[in-house]
Amino acid sequence: MASLQEIRAKLQSMESKPGSSSPAQGDKAIYPFWNIDEGTSTVLRFLPDSDPNNTFFWVERQMIRLTFPGIVGGEQKPTTVQVPCMEMFAGETCPVLTEVRPWFKDPSLEDMGRKYWKKRSYIFQGFVNENPLNEDTPENPVRRFVIGPQIFNIIKSALMDPDMENLPTDYVAGTDFRLAKTTKGQYADYSTSKWARKETALSEEQLAAIDTHGLHNLNDYLPAKPTPEGVQAIAEMFEASVNGELYDPARWGQFYKPYGLDVGTQTQATVAPAQTVPATPTESVAPVSAPAPAVAETTAPVVETAPAPVAEPVATAPAEGGEGGKKSADDILNMIRNRQSS
Q1: 60-69, 170-179, 280-289 — which is least confidently predicted?
Q2: CB neighbour list of residue 145: distance below 8 Å, 6 or more residues apart
Q3: pLDDT in tens, 313-340
Q4: Which is it for the CA torsion 167, 169, 170, 175, positive or negative?
Q5: Greater confidence, 275 or 51?
Q6: pLDDT tens profile 106-136
Q7: What pLDDT does residue 189 have?
Q8: Residue 158 three-state SS
Q9: Which distant-in-sequence residues (6+ apart) come within 8 Å of 186 by Cβ?
Q10: Running DSSP on this structure, what letter comes out for residue 56?
Q11: Cα–Cα 20 to 30 A to 252, which of 14, 187, 207, 323?
């Protein structure tokens, strides 16, 4: 387990680095905090990743949404297919972002560029210490949390605060996180979420649960790396989406498909077998591997998802998010820095 000082040092080194750019279905393992009522809150206690190579206690997921006006031979209504961004895998080039980056140089293409830009979410794990939802506690109380950029920035900023003396995931001197839900316009807003002021120890029951069930390896819940054929399918689907063509199950169904579509063939999984991760605020369609909750953390659109192309290197350099998320905070920190200086 990395210490708080090690996490701070790594975050700080990423911020100052030159050349940086901006278990089974229905197991209730994912806690749907987005379903809490407006004006209420839930208290989460984050736990470390079981992967000793992950400096952080989260991993970053990067996905791209491809929209189509319908399906060949099927329903003629807006359809979305979610695919992994190849830049999530070290040293890989994303065919979609390679095409999209130059669009930000043309003001008339910026909106289209944001539509196809990668959407980020962060996977954590831990206990739900206060639960306003009327739900049964799962057998394994170590839950997973799919966090959007708004909440993630609150979590990350506090880690750099010298007033936080101990690692928040420490079993004895850790800190709870109160996630509060309000509303801004038509969107849910979590900006008033904050860390507790006092450290608390895990209970004997929680320690026993960790001993019994163990901690998750968060990297297991990231999409699987696409095969070369899968990458080619992503490129073809992107071109068809931009051109306003229909989604063709005969061409791409064996790789990626809309949620719920039965193409009668084996589809390449985007997450580990028998695991699902729900959609994030701007990702309302589940990965193609298996059914996933159609719910989402309904927050306002996040501008940082589409930085200016000059702030991020083209994918000949090592991509972000490799090695279990060790580099996952690099782009986030630089995006924040770029916005503050603009």
Answers
A1: 280-289
A2: 30, 31, 33, 44, 46, 123, 124, 125, 126
A3: 333 333 333 333 333 344 444 444 454 4
A4: positive
A5: 51
A6: 999 999 999 999 999 999 999 999 999 988 8
A7: 96
A8: helix
A9: none
A10: S
A11: 323
The pLDDT-based confidence of 296 (bands split at 50, 70, 90) is very low
In tens, the pLDDT along 14-44 reads: 655 544 333 334 458 999 999 999 999 999 9
- What does pTM read for this prediction? 0.72
CB 174 within 8 A of CB 168: yes
Indicate the length of the chain as a whole number. 342
Q: Is 148 exposed, middle or buried (0-12, 13-18, 19+ CB in 10 A)?
A: buried
Where do we find the tokens 């990626």?
Answer: 256
Return the domain boundaries, the chain.
Answer: 4-335
CB 65 within 8 A of CB 80: yes
**Topology of domain 4-335, CATH:** Replication Fork Single-Stranded DNA Binding Protein (3.90.198)
Residue 299: Cβ within 10 Å count: 21
The DSSP output letter for 89 is: S
Most distant CA pair in the chain, distance: 60
Q: What sections of 92-135 are H helices per DSSP?
A: 95-100, 110-115
Tokens of 337: 């820095």
In the chain the beta strands, taken as DSSP E runs, fall at: 41-46, 59-68, 79-84, 119-130, 143-147, 174-180, 182-184, 187-189, 194-200
Q: What's the CA gap between 51 and 220, in Å, rounded?
A: 10
The whole-number pLDDT of residue 168 equals: 96
Q: How many helices (H) and strands (E) does the chain have?
A: 9, 9
User: Which residue intervals of 116-253 are DSSP H helices?
Assistant: 149-159, 204-213, 228-242, 249-252
Residues sharing a CB contact under 8 Å with residue 339, sequence separation 6 or more, in sequence order: 303, 304
CB 35 within 8 A of CB 186: no
CA dihedral 157, 159, 162, 163 (to 10 degrees): 90
Q: What is the pLDDT of residues 191-213, one digit of tens each?
A: 999 999 999 999 999 999 999 99
Q: Do 272 and 219 meet the contact criterion of CB atoms below 8 Å apart?
A: no
